[in-house]
Design brief:
Layout lengths: L3 H9 L19 E5 L1 E7 L2 E7 L2 H9 L3 E5 L6 H9 L3 E4 L23 H17 L3 E4 L1 H9 L4 E2 L3 H4 L12 E7 L4 H6 L2 E6 L4 E2 L7 E6 L4 E5 L6 E4 L11 H17 L1
Parallel strand pairs: 1-4, 1-5, 5-6, 6-13
Antiparallel strand pairs: 2-3, 7-10, 8-9, 8-11, 11-12, 12-13
Length: 268
């Protein structure tokens, strides 16, 4: 068992700094950004086990933008405990993953909807609710944007091919598609990435009825909602595309990290 730590490292997101003591361009303290994770079967080396893991690209997005990523694996929680977790963080990312349980928005599952992962749903909903309550800056990605919408009382299209007539938003085989996206001028998202954007997408669900207080700030060329924002919080953005896939474009992560830094300074 002596090799277990090194063999599991790639799947649970452990990374090494080439020079942990190297000087950084911004000398201000780096904000702590919590990032939710998967909790499901995983294989690495000789191990085949249930594991908490997350693609390293999310961590790179946070660290490239000047933050410190803190992994948040799904676990039983209460609203009080979720609030305690958020009190130790400066920002939150609700990462992508499996479909939200449609029972949460009052629908029966579509045949193509993933089997529900109750523990992950409970965890993500509790953390995001606590973040909104405490005005902690957050970025919700793909599934995360759907969690945000359902948390606010909205609903989802459970299978986009039934709506748009094609599988252009989820090609399959882990291949991300690129779709043109129009972004509302003056929105947080628009200020960061501009009026038009080709987003990397891999989703077969999307926002249908928009949740209370949310504002749609981006749509694809066939009208699918690709971003929503929650006014009244320092940074409350949900995007249906995957910004972590763009290693050369960290603008959304930079916006979150800067808002988190300001939030942290306000707590000091």
């Amino acid at each position: 068992m002596a090799s277990s730590d090194s063999e599991l490292a790639p799947i649970i997101g452990i990374t090494e700094l080439s020079d942990p003591g190297a000087a950084r361009p911004d000398s201000r303290p780096r904000p702590l950004i919590g990032v939710t994770t998967y909790l499901q079967r995983a294989q690495t080396g000789v191990w085949d086990t249930t594991a908490s893991f997350l693609p390293k690209k999310y961590l790179d997005g946070v660290t490239d933008a000047g933050g410190i990523a803190v992994l948040l694996p799904p676990q039983p929680t209460t609203p009080v405990e979720a609030a305690a977790v958020l009190s130790r963080l400066d920002g939150l990312i609700i990462a992508g993953g499996v479909d939200v349980d449609p029972a949460r928005y009052g629908e029966a599952p579509h045949p193509e909807t993933d089997a529900p992962q109750m523990l992950r749903d409970d965890w993500d909903f509790a953390l995001l609710s606590a973040a909104i309550e405490a005005s902690v800056p957050f970025l919700a990605v793909c599934r995360g944007a759907q969690v945000l919408n359902v948390l606010r009382g909205g609903t989802l299209h459970q299978h986009l091919p039934d709506v748009v007539g094609s599988s252009r938003y989820q090609l399959g085989n882990a291949e991300f598609a690129r779709v043109p996206i129009d972004i509302a001028p003056g929105s947080v998202t628009g200020t960061l990435v501009g009026a038009t954007f080709d987003g990397a997408v891999y989703h077969h669900q999307a926002i249908d009825e928009v949740g209370d207080g949310l504002v749609v700030t981006a749509r694809s060329d066939d009208g699918v909602v690709e971003a929503v924002e929650l006014p009244g919080v320092p940074f409350g953005v949900g995007v249906q595309w995957h910004p972590e896939e763009d290693a050369e474009d960290r603008r959304l992560f930079a916006g979150l990290v800067e808002a988190a830094r300001t939030y942290a300074e306000g707590k000091a």
